[in-house]
Amino acid sequence: MNDINLFDRLGIMLFWGSDSSLVDYLAINLTNPLAWVPFFIMLLYIVLHNHSNKRERLICVAAVCVTLALSAGVCNLIVKPLVCRVRPCNVPELREMFHVVKGYAENNYSFFSSHSANYTALATFFILLVRHRVMTVVMVCLALVNMWTRLYLGQHYLSDICVGMMWGIVSGYIGWRVYKKYSHQERHATEVAPTGFLLQDLYLAALVFVGTIFLVMLL
User: Fold this and answer.
1) Which of 6, 38, 56, 163 has the smallest number of Cβ neighbours within 10 A?
2) Are 108 and 159 contacting, i.e. CB atoms less than 8 angstroms apart?
3) How far apart are CA 74 and CA 60, in angstroms?
4) How far apart are CA 73 and CA 194, in angstroms?
5) How many angstroms separate the Cα of 110 from the Cα of each of 77, 87, 127?
6) Distance from C-alpha of 189 to C-alpha of 210, rounded to nearest angstrom
7) How far apart are CA 165 and CA 7, in angstroms?
8) Does 216 score more than 50 pLDDT?
9) Which tens digit of pLDDT belongs to each residue from 146-173?
């Protein structure tokens, strides 16, 4: 552990593991993208329901794809193979010192976190797209929950998470700029916000987010 810088050492000490089987269960299930499928479907519904025609819907979906292709592609295809940083859970010295939850240890590289990049990119895109506090809170919570699971499970150092978050913000902004460039959607400031997204859809997204976490706890 002496070879790890102070920032990452602090992250390990603060976040990696606990003595709670419930928290272990939550972390290992919430880190799985399949757990968030209902929420992703809800985001797709918001896109489809709040755009006036097929062209605008396709532009928005394409912009989301650009966002995720940037965040995941740069991370997994360029940076990770170049840096080749071993995940903390796969470092023998650290495995002896900290709890590896249910033996959960991915074998690919650590720097930087694709979970952090992807969820932050998605959050940034939808925050800029909708521009309403309900969506902002929900998307920030989505990104933070997934960042926490990666630290808790010992899959990443704190620096992996922070760099992933920064790249996610850049990717989300680029994706949103692509959307703004090609979209001609008419907006009405009286509905919810200047972007015109329906308030009922945003509250439904918040409900699905909270429901996903409770469902994981109960199953």
Assistant:
1) 6
2) no
3) 21
4) 32
5) 13, 5, 27
6) 28
7) 16
8) yes
9) 999 999 998 999 999 999 999 999 999 9
Question: Tell me, what amino acid is at 213?
Answer: I
**According to the model, what pLDDT value does residue 194 have?**
46
Bond into 7 cis (ω within 30) = no
| 37: confidence class by pLDDT, cuts 50, 70, 90 | very high
What's the distance, CA 78 to chain centroid?
A: 19
pTM for this predicted structure: 0.89
User: Is the CB of residue 101 less than 8 Å from the CB of residue 28?
Assistant: yes
**In 3D, which of 47, 1, 38, 12 has the Cα closest to residue 161?**
12
Cα separation, 153 vs 156, in Å, equals 8
Whether the predicted pLDDT of 1 surpasses 50: yes
Q: Which helix (H) or strand (E) holds 88?
A: none
Q: Is the pLDDT of residue 187 over 70?
A: no
The answer to whether 94 and 1 are in contact (CB under 8 A) is: yes
Residue type at 178 in one-letter notation: V
Phi, psi of 37 (to 5 degrees): -55, -45
Residue that has been written with the tokens 């929950």 in this structure: 145
Q: Tokens 């998605």, residue? A: 122
- Model confidence at 3, in pLDDT bands (50, 70, 90)? low
